[in-house]
Write a structure and sequence with these properties.
single chain; globular; 3-stranded antiparallel beta sheet; 7 helices; 5 strands; mainly alpha; about 45% helix
Length: about 200
């Protein structure tokens, strides 16, 4: 069943004291995890339509690409993204300890991308304070510190975009050897977003 959180009319940054988000269509607050009305317009944050976004080659599902390319104007094949993708594909994908981080990235990526697209200041902070430092530690082969900087960036973005109360439940998923980005994306579609 479609949920309000999947609708682009649901403003997750405007919440009341009960944790309800503001529906701009109905002009009132709703539990974002309630069943969506018949006026739903699926946003990029929808788990249902994420695969379509990837197939279209849309960067909107990947917030790092959105920040670097769509907001800051770097090429999709720039040094920053090449290093990060190589690190993901050749280190993180082969390590069971990072499975949850990879799934989380795929699930919250479209939500963060939607906000970052209109927020050049935050995209620049991402590059200056987090992406550049992560790459520096990758180059030094200090992978643990690189991962920690990445985690700090995710926490910063969740705080910035009022997402600290969202949890990704991937308890029904399990690590598989020889993962690739397409497998992670497929698995992530089975994860659930839960409100704390």
């Amino acid at each position: 069943m479609a949920m309000c959180i999947q609708c682009e009319k649901m403003n997750l940054q405007k919440t009341n004291e009960y944790g309800e988000a503001f529906c701009e269509d109905k002009d009132r607050y709703y539990d974002p995890y309630s069943g969506a009305c018949s006026n739903i317009v699926f946003s990029d944050s929808s788990l249902r339509n994420r695969e379509d976004e990837y197939e279209k080659g849309n960067s909107s599902s990947c917030y790092l690409t959105t920040a670097m390319c769509d907001v800051l104007g770097y090429d999709d094949n720039c040094y920053y993204l090449k290093v990060l993708r190589n690190f993901r594909d050749n280190y993180m994908m082969n390590n069971r300890n990072y499975f949850n981080l990879l799934i989380e990235y795929e699930v919250i990526g479209p939500i963060i991308s939607k906000y970052i697209l209109k927020d050049k200041e935050t995209a620049q902070i991402m590059l200056d304070d987090y992406i550049s430092k992560t790459i520096m530690f990758i180059q030094k082969k200090d992978y643990k510190r690189a991962i920690n900087i990445y985690i700090e960036m995710v926490e910063f973005l969740k705080e910035k975009y009022n997402m600290t109360n969202l949890i990704i439940d991937n308890s029904n998923l399990s690590f598989q050897p020889n993962l690739n980005k397409h497998m992670i994306r497929t698995l992530a579609k089975e994860a659930t977003i839960i409100r704390k």
